[in-house]
Prior knowledge:
Helix content: under 10%
Number of helices: 1
Largest sheet: 14 strands, mixed
Order of helices and strands: HEEEEEEEEEEEEEEEEEE
Shape: elongated
Structural class: mainly beta
Number of strands: 18
Amino acid sequence: MLPFSVVLLLLCATPLPTPSLALPFEQKGFLDFGKSIDVEGLMMMMMNDEEEGSAVEEYYKPEYYKPEQPTCPFGCQCNQKVVQCSDLGLHYVPYDIPPETRLLDLQSNQITEIREDDFKGLSNLYALVLVNNKISRVHPRAFMPLKRMQKLYFSHNQLTAVPKNLPSSLVELRIHDNRIKRVAAGAFSGLGSMNCIELGRNPIQNSGLEPGAFDGLKLTFLRISEAKLTGIPKDLPEGLHELHLDQNQIQAIELEDLRQYEGLHRLGLGYNHIRHIEHGSLYYLQNLRELHLENNRIPNVPGGLAGMKYLQVVYLHSNNISQVEVNDFCPEGFGVKKTYYNGISLFDNPINYWEVEPATFRCVSNRMAVQFGNHKK
């Protein structure tokens, strides 16, 4: 089984005159959504943002500011505006957090609620890590002092709703693995700077995504994997570059399902129950670089792949595909394809690979890029 990579392959979208061996790209500025957050990696990200001018401005000092003796919450480590209070068994956000703090790490504690004044005075905070606690309640005014915060990591908690009044400066929100069943209309209102939301492993059904839930967002990355979706959601942000809906219960891709997502570079639909892909439904994805359809019940190679000029990686393993036609992947016309394939996975399908014509993979970078493997009956 091939691993489903979390980070986006960041490819140059500039059309090339002839097919090229374009390398997969890596989405920069996003962390993985595992059980813990790498604080050192987050610090590096913060420093990179500072150099590029996208992080918090120079430390804000109000007129009444008077230098005080350095403070640090008991048991925590405070160094260079980074406060680390992880794995301390804390039940509440501690007091005495230095006002100049830029990164606050509270992961892997026993915190059950976020109170109104927990972050009072932390107007310069860049990133807040609350991963792997037991938080089920968040005061609606708790995040209001955090006017410059860009990254909020809230995964592996017990939230039942998206927290209210999130800072308008927020760029990245991770609320993976909570108990959210409903995303209300306007849940992300006022978050015009947001470009990444991780909602995976929440018990969200299609009906739980209310119309207008994502209004006003200009996301490039959205993940709603490991949920309870039975179809591709409607009315998601149109500017998405990455959409991950793997490990749901999606059964089909209808003609209009992907019409509004023309800017997608990566689409993840692996580990669903897809049996039918309506002809023409992939036509709109002309900028797609990577397509995941592995571990479904698809009976044939989806139509339209040959017309995707920039498509480089296709995961079709562990399906019910029994035949591969000579023009399933590569266009007939010369110069139509702008990039060669770097990977096509077809293993664990009932395909007689010796019956597949060699010309089928004429637009693949090399023979090692195609994986047939064995089919287990």
